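Lab notebook: predicted structure, single chain.

Context: the supervisor wants predicted structures on file for every construct in the current expression panel, including those that have not yet been purified. This is the next one on the list. No modifications to the sequence; it matches the entry in the shared construct table.
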Amino acid sequence: MEHDGFVVRPVGRVESPLTDRAGAPRQGDEGAPPAWIVFEERVVPALADLHEGDQILLLTWLHQADRDVLAVHPRGDVTRPETGVFATRAPDRPNPIGLHRAEIVEVDGRRVLVDGLEAVHGTPILDVKPVIGAVDER
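Prediction complete. Output recorded below exactly as produced.
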């Protein structure tokens, strides 16, 4: 993906039973099934030290998003006032970067099974970061 001089190369993709946005939970803790992250061969060394039970943050490119949306009714509820997308977690937004907290269930080569990921099948993974605790745990 390239935009205004920025080049972002996905490091992997989501393999999930969730295949369309309408059927996906809005957040991972709202019933997301386990999903595999399949990483590109070129980034396999970056998977070192990821372990079962680790809490991670996944940054995704929400490839089915509408990039022209600037305001939404939160959670699609028209009884709630329209809100600017930067004050929401809406997937439709100018730069559709998703942020997901998930737990690693299994690491199998370049495949990592996670729990709590609401992204649909085929979603590109941009980066993975550990969830960090208090300063003395870092």
